[in-house]
Amino acid sequence: MSDGFAVELQEVVKRFGDVTAVDHISLQIRDGEFFSLLGPSGCGKTTTLRLIAGFEMPTSGQILIGGELQGYRPAFQRPVNTVFQHYALFPHMSVYDNVAFGLEMRGVPDKETKSRVHEALELVQLPGMVHRRPDQLSGGQQQRVALARALVNQPKVLLLDEPLGALDLKLRKAMQIELKALQHRVGITFIYVTHDQEEALTMSDRIAVIRRGRVLQMGAPEGIYEHPANRFVADFIGETNFIPGRVAPLGPPVEVALDGGASVLCGWAEEGTTVGAEVTVSIRPERIGLQGVDDGGTGAELARLAGTITQAMYLGTDTRYVIEAAGGATLAVRMQNVGDGVQRHAVGDAVAVMWDPQHARVLID
Ligand code: ATP
Asked: Is any atom of ligand 1 closer than 6 Å to the C-beta of 42?
């Protein structure tokens, strides 16, 4: 492979009439990587996947697979396979025949077909069901057959379009773990489309967050969650608090003045932040600490705001508080219930809200 990438997109654009579904997307997906395209409905992730598969052709830009320019090469000549949300199995055919179909069409000898089909069914942990028809299987089992049908072709890259979307929550969670383990075992590059941020965080080596046909941020799950590059990403991935304010000294740390005279410190500011600019401070609920006003301690190195607890919701492992804080901010705070498991604060309590500035980010707009 010439460039070491399984798949590369260079400034790819796809227009459907007036709609720009994919707007100058550039990606480099490594060999063996579990890479997710994540974004809200209509952002262009399925179109991006279909362009890689060869079901659509780009308006402009280039796609390389295994270092080779694809140009107008049709889908069946590309070294990829796609698994869709709706399994698209042949209903009248057995599991065996569904999985064997592609190999038989290509004239692979019977003996080889048989061993490859059994190997693929072992991989997806579905042996012993070769004679059943799809309607005699559960949703999760049908999706395993669809996976086996793709894997049996030994593609270099497997494209998955919301493959777990039709499953109920519990099964989806179990299949997420299984799919990740499977990808690890077979070592094939997976490109995975999902609008479910939790799913993308759980499974991916890297994620591209897409909005309106553009990649807003790309990186490992932890990097995207801990260091969102802008307001959209901070809001889309996990829960976060947004506090409006105005930039005072640029620091570091950056000081942001809130309404009513309070101010907070933040460790990072989005590029282009200027003194006096109207901004939003973003801080995750689990990064905020609470201190009863009578607990003592100054927390001098921390950003602090006075506040009052307006809601306390016990959630088992943790408690979620809502706090009306100085500066007019309403903040969600999550605290683990450790020790005796008793929540430490109650509705009406006056508290100090605090955080380490390195976890607070100044975002423009
Ligand atoms: P979803 O999660 O809802 O499937 P998505 O992020 O996968 O959404 P796409 O299906 O890629 O989004 O669609 C991106 C945009 O392109 C949408 O505005 C969609 O309406 C438009 N679009 C997609 N396919 C076509 C088509 N064949 N003709 C016209 N417009 C299309």
From this structure: yes
Does the C-beta of 19 come closer than 6 Å to ligand 1?
yes
Interatomic CA distance for residues 276 and 358, integer angstroms: 21
Spatial distance between the Cα atoms of 102 and 110, rounded to a whole number of angstroms = 12
Give the CA count within 13 Å in the CB-facing half-sphere of 142.
21
> 3-class DSSP state for residue 150?
helix
* 165 Cβ closer than 6 Å to some ligand 1 atom: no
Output the residue whose Cα is nearest ligand 1's atom 16: 21
How confident is the model over 147-157, as pLDDT tens digits? 899 989 888 99
Q: Which two tokens stand for residue 83?
A: 């698994």
- pLDDT for 92: 92
Task: Give the residue, out of 15, 46, 50, with the most ligand 1 atoms within 8 A of its beta carbon, to mutate for a pocket test.
Answer: 46
Tell me the longest C-alpha to C-alpha distance in the chain.
79
How far, in Å, CA of 205 to CA of 199, rounded?
12
Residue of the CA atom closest to atom 1 of ligand 1 = 41
The single-letter code of the amino acid at 78 is: R
pTM of the model: 0.87
Residue 297 scores a pLDDT above 80: no
Quick check: CB of 213 below 6 Å from ligand 1?
no
How confident is residue 322, by pLDDT bands cut at 50, 70 and 90? very high
